[in-house]
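PROTEIN DESIGN WORKSHEET
SECTION A - STRUCTURE
LENGTH: 383
TOKENS:
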């Protein structure tokens, strides 16, 4: 391959990874770009999971064998079967300086540059899958071995040579830069949907997930339930003991909310802002959600310094009328929570239900009683 073609291939690889919106898209773009750049027939990207002692395949592209899924769920190999990633290359790297170089394996077992005594797992894999040669390039991220880029050619096609290995080393560096960018984007997305103080989801995450859940309800009848709650006594704690103590109370309640949310499969625990929190569940029945909300009230009442929680619940499984928008379900739960706060209820108030002590919460299209401006919420959603 001429220098101009190789430069174009490097640019195409970098552009493909830069255009990715998710880690999977980034992995796939890396493998496809490297496969094309090296005129391979197959490529894979693997990550070294240090805590599990294995190389886990993230993506396979090109001419895949029957046992090679594009995004495999459980294709992983013990690192001791491929010790280059942890030992051989590390020694080379430390002694030679710079980043570790790629190397070539062939189906004949001639592993270029390999010292004696290492297992030939790659050679066996080449033969088993009808491939003639492969080039393996370690990927280094943040100064540590991250994983490897693997590109193979079919049997009967030209075998990779030293120049290909050198080029693969360059490609691995480009992939590492792309992966670093993906990590930064994922962290930015995580922060955009996470409450910094409690580590729970934030209001933006609830907006998105509730819209999706209501769409599922409209399309498939999925039960959607929302628990909205206010942590009582926060202002008193802030005024008398300081905001640092108030923040600790918020964190502790956030932990309680997370623990209770785990009782509902797939539930989202979130802090809406200030002393306002919620649980969003799509799938579990209304009775299960109400039971968890009751447990939440009980545990919140046991928190030191706090004064319990005012909790309202609204579920599409209860007699609350048709729920066609996220805004409506939120307003129902909010009205129930406002009622719980008004009567200082020690247990949840549930929209559409009438308990022994609390009147039924009804809401057609009218908004709940007006709150002071400081307590008002908005909800981004269709009316």
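SECTION B - SEQUENCE
RESIDUE ASSIGNMENT:
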């Amino acid at each position: 391959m001429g220098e101009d073609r190789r430069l174009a291939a490097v640019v195409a690889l970098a552009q493909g990874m830069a255009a990715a919106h998710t880690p999977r898209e980034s992995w796939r773009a890396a493998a496809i770009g490297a496969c094309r750049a090296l005129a391979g027939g197959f490529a894979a990207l693997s990550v070294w999971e240090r805590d599990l002692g294995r190389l886990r395949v993230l993506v396979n592209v090109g001419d895949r064998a029957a046992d090679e899924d594009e995004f495999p769920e459980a294709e992983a190999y013990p690192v001791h079967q491929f010790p280059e990633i942890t030992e051989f290359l590390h020694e080379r790297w430390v002694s030679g300086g710079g980043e570790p170089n790629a190397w070539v394996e062939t189906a004949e077992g001639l592993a270029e540059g390999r010292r004696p005594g290492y297992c030939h797992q790659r050679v066996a894999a080449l033969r088993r899958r009808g491939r003639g040669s492969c080039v393996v390039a370690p990927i280094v991220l943040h100064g540590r071995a991250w994983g490897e880029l693997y590109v193979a050619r079919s049997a009967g096609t030209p075998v990779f040579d030293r120049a290909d290995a050198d080029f693969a080393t360059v490609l691995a560096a480009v992939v590492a830069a792309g992966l670093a960018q993906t990590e930064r984007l994922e962290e930015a997305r995580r922060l955009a949907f996470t409450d910094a103080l409690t580590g729970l989801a934030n209001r933006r995450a609830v907006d998105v997930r509730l819209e999706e859940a209501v769409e599922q309800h409209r399309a498939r009848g999925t039960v959607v339930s929302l628990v909205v709650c206010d942590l009582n006594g926060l202002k008193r704690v802030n005024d008398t003991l300081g905001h640092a103590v108030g923040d600790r109370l918020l964190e502790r309640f956030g932990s309680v909310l997370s623990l209770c949310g785990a009782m509902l499969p797939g539930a989202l625990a979130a802090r809406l802002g200030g002393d306002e929190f919620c649980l969003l569940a799509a799938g579990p029945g209304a009775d299960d959600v109400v039971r968890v909300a009751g447990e939440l009230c009980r545990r919140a009442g046991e928190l030191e310094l706090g004064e319990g929680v005012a909790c309202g619940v609204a579920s599409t499984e209860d007699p609350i009328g048709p729920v066609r928008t996220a805004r409506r379900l939120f307003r129902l739960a909010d009205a129930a929570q406002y009622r719980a706060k008004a009567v200082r209820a020690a247990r949840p108030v549930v929209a559409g239900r009438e308990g022994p002590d609390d009147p039924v919460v009804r809401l057609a299209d009218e908004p709940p009683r007006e709150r002071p401006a400081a307590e008002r919420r908005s909800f981004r959603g269709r009316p």
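SECTION C - NOTES
The CA atoms of residues 213 and 282 lie 6 Å apart.
Confidence is low (pLDDT under 50) at residues 88-96, 113-119, 356-383.
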